[in-house]
Amino acid sequence: MPKKHTEASGEVADPDQQEPVCILDAVICVHFVGANLHRILVDVLARAELTLLVPQEVCDEVSRKDKKYPGIKLRWSRLVQSQYIRVLPALEARTAPGRVVEVFEDVRGRQLEDALRDSKDLGEAVVVAHGVHYQDRSHEVLVAIDDQGGQALAAARDLEIITVEDVLTMAIEFGHFSDEGKLKEAYGKLRRFGDSLLPYTHTSLSTSCKEWQARQ
Q1: DSSP label of 66
Q2: pLDDT tens for each residue of the chain, 216 residues long
Q3: What is the DSSP letter of 128?
Q4: Is 81 helix (H, G, I), strand (E, B) or coil?
Q5: What is the sign, positive or negative, of the torsion defined by CA atoms of 69, 151, 87, 37?
Q6: In the chain, where do the E strands start and end?
Q7: How many Å from the N-terminal Cα to the C-terminal Cα in the chain?
Q8: Spatial distance between the Cα atoms of 29 and 35, rounded to a whole number of angstroms
Q9: How far is CA 25 from the centre of its chain?
Q10: For residues 38 and 67, is the Cβ–Cβ distance under 8 A?
Q11: Long-range contacts of the stretch 192-197 (C-beta < 8 A, 24+)
Q12: Cα dihedral 139, 23, 167, 160 sign
């Protein structure tokens, strides 16, 4: 993860200026937005001086979860309209960067138009494709992916991965949780919005929280 953790200025940097970027996948967004804890996600990544990018395909996937988790579409729409997140345009053959299309087709194993029609794991493939594109342009890149299959895709292309647990570990360091009880409560809320998160006792969050408290 980026070594610099300074206060956010409130402005989103232009990724074209080779700022460090974090590209968000749908699963991690659903957990935080569904639990109404997206302010933590945005704050810790912004304070780590990361420009937050979300592909349009991921936005669509998160919005579709409203049927399962009522209210998530409204909260998500407000978040992506804020100054803190930049939405990347949907992939189209005539407008998408060539490297993004190349990686996307390689990940999906088929041509662009055919690959876009299959919604299964679409967001992860798009995130990885954009990640490789920005990394090739000398950006420091993190991809926020909590699904193991997506993590494997990203790791195969040498992309650094950040998970829900990583975000919470950063939140601990930034003082978001005054005690472990509040941390456990937040983690419990996150677990209600998907089955990818391990039980709290199987994470290293308790240790991280105790270590942070010992330094205060």
Answers
A1: G
A2: 544 433 333 334 444 567 899 999 999 999 999 999 999 999 999 999 999 999 999 999 999 999 999 999 999 999 999 888 999 999 999 999 999 999 999 999 999 999 999 888 899 999 999 999 999 999 999 999 998 899 999 999 999 999 999 999 999 999 999 899 999 999 999 999 988 899 999 999 999 999 999 998
A3: H
A4: coil
A5: positive
A6: 21-24, 51-55, 85-88, 141-144, 160-162
A7: 23
A8: 10
A9: 5
A10: no
A11: 192/34, 192/35, 193/30, 193/31, 193/34, 193/35, 193/69, 194/27, 194/30, 194/31, 194/34, 194/146, 196/27, 196/31, 196/146, 196/147, 196/148, 196/164, 197/31, 197/146, 197/164, 197/165
A12: negative
Two tokens, residue 55: 């592909």
What are the structure tokens assigned to 39, written together? Answer: 């302010």
Tokens of 93: 């053959």
> Tokens at residue 57, please?
């395909």
